[in-house]
Write a structure and sequence with these properties.
With 275 residues, this protein is α/β, with parallel strands linked by helices. It has 8 helices and 8 strands.
Length: 275
């Protein structure tokens, strides 16, 4: 492990461990002593990394408030406040979303080149904001972006973000016919991209909006634009990562669903614990 102060690789592991069981090291170059959690965002936190990772995972995945999480862990003898859970989410959710976003770059193949794009409205500080979302024809996530406005600049920014997230340029884009989309598609994705305008062909995406809308319904709203942007992106990335990668109307047996969910949830917990 490299030194957290000077970056030297000349770090020797010490025989004793911390009170939480983490390995300790000492740098031969600068003499700094540190443990395996010193360089992460969870340094100096009171609880083990696996407990904090589970709190953040449940926060993003299930319809639980911050106080619900504090009460559930209280029954297991782990005491923390709802503000501590909020702070852990703010620290770890961006790291999880960034890693999952990086992993799916370039995936999708031919099916991932057919995008469905739409927006849904959320309230931030009592004002409406627009959550741009895109999925491919199998329902896999393309990208998510929150914008204060629904205009040409927002549409262009969303298509640039989606192209950077997937690493591919779509062959076809289906929208609801808003006037900002044709020019945004031509200027950002190219003139060869086929643009379809049909509200009925976007029914699958309209139904998919219910995931994020249902998740935030139990919450008391958002007070800052940054917090809702962070939460929506992390929720969508985790939700897409945990869903079985299937084609349209493909049946997945229940035992396979359980195995896939356990494997991917374990991988998400490992990402959160290592952040």
């Amino acid at each position: 492990m490299d030194c957290v102060r000077c970056g030297s690789a000349a770090a020797a592991e010490r025989p004793e461990r911390t009170a939480r069981g983490y390995r300790r090291f000492r740098c031969r170059e600068c003499g700094r002593q540190f443990n395996e959690r010193s360089a992460g965002s969870l340094n100096r936190t009171q609880y083990p990394s696996d407990i904090i990772a589970l709190v953040v995972l449940w926060r993003l995945r299930y319809r639980l408030t911050l106080r619900d999480l504090a009460e559930m862990f209280l029954l297991r003898g782990i005491v923390f406040s709802h503000e501590a859970a909020r702070d852990w989410e703010a620290k770890l959710a961006p790291a999880l979303a960034g890693e999952l976003r990086r992993r799916r770059r370039g995936e999708g193949g031919a099916r991932g080149r057919h995008w469905h794009v739409d927006e849904t409205c959320l309230k931030v500080r009592g004002r409406w904001a627009h959550l741009y979302r895109a999925v491919d024809r199998d329902g896999d996530l393309v990208d998510t972006m929150l914008s204060e406005r629904r205009d040409m600049a927002a549409a262009r920014a969303f298509f640039r973000s989606a192209k950077a997230a997937t690493g591919v340029t779509p062959d076809r884009v289906t929208t609801d016919g808003h006037g900002s989309y044709p020019r945004a598609i031509r200027s950002t994705l190219g003139r060869r991209v086929v643009h379809r305008t049909s509200a009925y062909k976007n029914n699958g995406l309209e139904q998919d909006h219910r995931g994020v809308k249902g998740r935030i319904r139990c919450m008391r709203g958002f007070k800052s634009f940054a917090s809702v942007e962070r939460f929506c992106r992390s929720h969508d990335e985790l939700r897409d990562f945990l869903r079985p990668g299937t084609r349209h109307n493909q049946h997945v047996p229940a035992d396979l669903r359980r195995r896939l969910h356990f494997r991917r949830a374990t991988a998400a917990l490992a990402i959160l614990a290592a952040a």
